[in-house]
Design brief:
There is one protein chain. The chain is built from nine helices and seven strands. The chain is mostly helical and 240 residues long. The strands form three sheets. The chain has a three-stranded antiparallel beta sheet. A two-stranded antiparallel sheet has the order 1-2. It folds into two domains: 1-126, Glycosyltransferase; 129-240, no CATH class. The chain is globular and about 55 Å long.
Length: 240
């Protein structure tokens, strides 16, 4: 609750008219960064669901509407509105989609359904190679980053109700990671570049996020009545 109050008191801002956001990365900054706005709005929406306090809901919806309006007609979002932030990448797009889905669920609204569907269509069409490798950027593959792998799995499964084929795509992403980023010593590599692989075992960026992704995928397999053995389950087993 205190964290949410900090967001409202220190990070929430508005121009008094139609524009609102959450300051990122520091209080007082008023750059529009969609993933920061959506994630903040998702948290406040979740608190609204649990507490019924509308002081959380109003700012959440106002900020979410502003960032939803920044979506391009093709379904994509730039990372941010700053001149140096005009790129489109995998995991920040994934954050946007997961947060929008959470806002809709916790706030009890279908207002962002169209944005979510268009965003998912763009995500599916631009961020995956045929072999399951997740692209970092929408218009080029390298680097193939383990964080993109993890967030791709999480995002695809979070939105599987909009397209059931997301489940098989998520499994394909996982299998690609096992073939190219898994080390038999029990960790995932950081990145695959065009001519080399960076094998650093970062804890937060790689291992922790992949543990969440694999847990999500394992739960999905259980829900479908599939045995984990239908996956290459070495990493799943060792993670447990």
């Amino acid at each position: 609750m205190e964290a949410a109050q900090y967001i409202l008191d220190e990070l929430y801002w508005t121009d008094g008219k139609s524009v609102a956001g959450f300051s990122y990365p520091l209080p007082g900054l008023r750059h529009q960064v969609p993933n920061a706005n959506f994630l903040g709005a998702a948290l406040l929406s979740r608190l609204y669901q649990h507490t019924g306090e509308k002081r959380f809901l109003g700012p959440a919806l106002r900020v979410a509407r502003c960032s939803a309006a920044q979506q391009h007609t093709d379904g994509s979002w730039d990372y941010g509105e700053g001149p140096s932030q005009r790129w489109i990448d995998n995991f920040h797009t994934g954050y946007n989609l997961c947060a929008l889905r959470s806002i809709g669920r916790y706030a009890g609204t279908t207002e962002f359904e169209s944005s979510t569907r268009r965003g998912l269509e763009f995500y599916q069409a631009h961020f995956f190679r045929e072999d399951g490798a997740p692209r970092y950027f929408h218009n080029r593959t390298y680097p193939v980053d383990i964080h993109c792998v993890a967030q791709s799995i999480i995002t695809l499964l979070a939105l599987k109700d909009l397209d059931p084929s997301n489940v098989e795509l998520a499994r394909s992403v996982f299998q690609w990671a096992m073939n190219h980023l898994w080390d038999e010593r029990g960790f995932f590599y950081y990145r695959v570049l065009r001519f080399c692989t960076i094998r650093i075992p970062y804890m937060r960026w790689a291992q922790a996020w992949m543990l969440l992704a694999m847990s999500t995928l394992l739960c999905e397999s259980d829900a479908l009545g599939r045995s984990p053995e239908t996956l290459d389950s070495r990493a799943l087993v060792e993670a447990c």
